Each structure stands twice: as C-alpha cells, then as structure tokens.
Amino acid sequence: MRAIRLPALSMATSFGASAATWVLLQQFAVRGLVAIKFLAIGRMLGPAAIGSVSVALLAVAIAEALSDTGLAQAVIQGEHPPTRSQLGAVWTTLTARGVLISLLLVALAPLLSSQFHLNGSLVLIQLAALLPLLRGLASPTYYLVQRERRFQHIAGVEVAASFVDCSVGLALAYFGAGAASVLIGLVAGESLKSTLTWATMKPRPPIRAVWSGIGHYVGFSRWIWASSVVNLLLNQFDKVVVGKLLGPAQLGGYQMSSRLAQMLLADAAIAMSQYLFPTFAARHRRNPQSASRLIKIYLLVIAVGLAAFVEVLRLIAEPLFSLILGAAWLPAVPLFRILVINMAIGALIAVLVAYLRAVGDAKATVHASLIQVVVLLVSVPPAVHWWGVTGIAWSMTVGLGCAAAWMLFRTLAARIP
Asked: Over 90: is that where the pLDDT of 294 sits?
C-alpha cells in the first residue's frame, strides 16, 4: 500500500494549485503559441511587416516603462495582503495610467510613423494603443492571486488568452490582413485576459475612483519605476537605433533574431520568475537563510544548462533559420549567434531580479541597470563604428554581463539576519 500511495501523493503535490508544474506548463503552452504565431506570420509576411509591427510594440513598451507604477510588484512583495479598498485604489491608478498611455500613443501616431519609416501605417500604432488600456482595465486581484501562489488559476487565464491571440492572428494573416493581424490577435488575447480576471478572481475591487490607501507601497514601487525607466533604455535602445537608421526591413531581421533567441532561452526563465518571485518572498518572510540557500542552487543549475544550450544553438543557427523562417531571413543568422549569448545572460538576470525584489532589495536591480547604461555609453560608439549592427548586439551583451555580475555579487554577499 505504501508503494502505491507515495507516487499518488507525489503526483498530487506536483499538480497542486501552487505547484511550479503549472508555471512550467504555462510557459510551455504560452511561449509555444507565441512562437507559432510569430514564426508562421514572419514566414508569410517577411521582415518588413515584422519590423512595422515591432515599431508599434516598441512605442507601447516605451510608454509603459516610463509610466510604470510598480504597484503589481509591491502588492506581491508586501508584508500584508491588500484590502478590497486598497485593490480598488490599485485598479483606479492602473486604469488611469492605461487611458493616458493609449491617448498619448494615438496622438503621437503620425510622428512615430514618419520617424520610423512606416509609410503612413497609422493603424498599426492605433491598434497597439489599445493594449495598455486593456491591461489597465484588468482586475488587480490578478496580482493578489500571484501573491497567494495560485499558479493553476494563473496558467488557465494566460493559456486561454494566448490561444485566442495565436488563433486570431494566424487566421487574419492567412486571409490577407497583413501586419495588422499580429496586433489584432494581441488585442483579442488581452481582452479575454482582462475579462477573465474579473470573472474568475475574487475579491473583486470596487469599480469606482479610489485614490487613497496605497501610499505605503510607494517606497518599494519607486525602485520598480526607476528600474523600468533605466531598463527602457537598455532593452529598447538597440531597436530604436536600428529602426530609425535602417528602417522596418532591417529592424524586422534584428527583432526576429532577438525574439527567436528569447523564445529559446530567456522566456523560460522570465516565466519561471513568476513562480520564483512570490515563492522567494514567502520563503524569505518565514526563513531568510532558506531563501538564500535556494537561490544558490537555482543559479548553479541554470548557469550550467544555459551554457550548454547556447553552444548548441550557435552551431545549428543557419539550418535553424532556413528550416523555420526561410531563405529571406538568413542574413540575420550572425545576429542570432550573438543574441543567444545576450538572452542567456538575460535568463540568469531574470532569476536574480526575482530574488532581489523578493527580499526587498529592488534598488540593487536599479544599480545593475545603471552599470549597464555606463557600459553602453562607453562601448556603443566605437562598436557601431567598427562593426555596425553586430557591434550594437555585442555592446548589449557586454552590458548585460556586467549587470548580472553586480546582481550576483549582491545576492551572494547579502547579510542574512
């Protein structure tokens, strides 16, 4: 009987509502659907269309980073869960932010179109402007669910939204909607996700303007905002330069190389950080020494696995591009070989950020980003002069390496009470 019960108990534990298994399944399903969508549409439409979509999404990323409130992370990390009234204040703040971002993007659409050579494709930026609005309207109870580590629930919502995004995008691209199909799919997915956060997650915050009750989050969230602003420069600088100087076609090749490398390397760690952040935070509240031991084990395992995988991807880069995307994308192979190193370091950083924020040291991530900024300011001008676009890619990689080294130092040297 004991031999029978133990596997059953193990299986039940592996698929409990808070098990990491759900994060991994979510990662596999969501990133798989994203990969299918972008790779299939990229093969159908070519680099120029993907570059045009990238400009629209780049505008959204810039606006959201500049206005990041840090409230989501503060709700998850805080010592006490928010009350229903406090959730209402969070929702009011995030909704107002989403409305303002959307209006700003619509107003700036003509300027962005001319600056990034979109040839009057205003509809792409206008469609992208719906995304921050829909995200702002979602119920902030989603962050409470994350705090409580109900990963099964989160996985259901995220997979459903990604499936709609992929299905709508592929169908529209197949029937000739062009680059707009990518953005319409994203809008459909975000609409479903926002609806599900209200329909399936409780407690529901009051739907009225509430502005007070979250002042205690400001001390933590200001570091999240600072990190977002600095990371805006770090994560989007290369894309802005390529898009502005070389146009949508070159940006499409650069972006697809980056996205493919991210799908294969960084996305798993970024998704895993959704599990690690609340898990480290909960463990740190109970036993800081245990959290410190756990992060060291994770870092060792992840670093060894990433090093081996990077080497394999660099060896098979050319046949991989030819098989998945076609001959039109082969000029992007040299960039891909650099960017897989970049994304491997990014994967390691995602784990370090989850830990440092969970233990309340969010400023360490800001300091790391500032180090990366200094490295870029010093290295980018000569790198671009001598090696062009590949020089930018190498500069980004060196900067990430320096940032990771600083966060690793802060993690290992932290004093545990």
From this structure: no
**Residue 313: pLDDT band with limits 50, 70, 90:** very high
Cis (ω within 30 of 0) for the bond into 248? no
Distance from C-alpha of 195 to C-alpha of 190, rounded to nearest angstrom: 8
Segments making up each domain of the chain, as ranges: 17-213, 223-417
Q: What is the pTM of this model?
A: 0.71
**CB contact burial 226-243 (16+ within 10 A = b; e otherwise):** bbbebbbbbbbbbbbbbb
Say if residue 288 is exposed, middle or buried (CB neighbours under 10 Å; 0-12, 13-18, 19+).
middle
Structure tokens belonging to residue 355: 């830990």
**Contact of 397 with 330, CB cutoff 8 Å:** no
Radius of gyration of the chain (CA): 21
The pLDDT tens digits for 152-168 are: 999 999 999 999 999 99
> 229 near 65, Cβ under 8 Å?
yes
Tokens 């959730």 belong to: 87
CB atoms within 10 A of CB 144: 21
What's the DSSP call for residue 326?
-
Q: Which pair of tokens denotes residue 396?
A: 């980004």
Residue 121: closest CA among 75, 40, 61, 55: 55
Per-residue pLDDT band at 219 (split at 50, 70, 90): low
Closest CA to 231 of 99, 95, 407: 407
Average pLDDT score over the chain:
84
Report helix, strand or coil for 116.
Answer: coil
**Residue 384 main-chain phi, psi, to 5 deg:** -65, -40
Nearest in space to 396 (alpha carbons), one of 366, 375, 365: 375
Report the pLDDT value the prediction gives residue 221, as an integer from 0 to 100: 65
Eight-class DSSP state of 67: T
C-beta separation of 396 from 258 below 8 A: no
Sign of CA dihedral 13, 294, 366, 374: negative
Q: What would the mean pLDDT of 243-271 be, rounded to a whole number?
A: 77
CB 249 within 8 A of CB 55: no
Rounded percentage of the chain residues whose pLDDT exceeds 90: 31
Under the banding of pLDDT at 50, 70 and 90, the label for residue 268 is confident
